[in-house]
Structure formats: C-alpha cells, structure tokens
Amino acid sequence: MTDSLEEEEEREEEREEEEEEEGEKEEQKVEEQEKEEEEKMEEGEKEEEEEEEEEGEEKTEEGEEEEEEKMEKEEQEEEVL
Question: Which residues of 1-22 are buried (b: 16+ CB within 10 A; e: fewer)?
C-alpha cells in the first residue's frame, strides 16, 4: 500500500516538474518572440529615420539649387539694368 502511494507521489512530482519545465520553455519562447518583434520595430524605425534624413537632404539640395537659380536670375536682371 505504501509503495503505491510513494510511486504515485513520485509520478505526481515528475508531472509537476515537467509542467514547470514546459511553462518555463513557453515563457522563454514568448520572451524571444517579444525580443524579435522589438528588434524588428527598432530596425523599422531606423530605416524610417534614414529615409527621412535622405528626403531631408534631397529637399535641402533642391532648396539650394532653387536658391542658386534665383540668385542667377537676380544677377542676370541686374546686368540687364
């Protein structure tokens, strides 16, 4: 009688340990997924910032070109006068 109780207790302990291990593994998976998602978001934000910088540089270049053209026109107008 006692043997079967001890065996049952041992099986119960083993089951609890297995469940605990499975829970820990599942928790690790969730943490890894969250970390990957966070990294993807950060990477996306970096790419977005780089694109914005590039667009800003392009706009700056366009603005400089427009400014040069205006100055050239003004110089030509002054020469005409």
Answer: eeeeeeeeeeeeeeeeeeeeee
pLDDT in tens, 40-70: 999 988 898 888 888 877 778 777 888 888 8
Domain ranges of the chain: 1-81
Check residue 1 and report its DSSP letter: -
Structure tokens at 13: 């302990």
- Of 13, 33, 32, the C-alpha closest to 21 is 13
Three-state DSSP class for residue 58: helix
Six token digits for residue 2: 């006692």
Tell me which residue has tokens 């990477």.
43
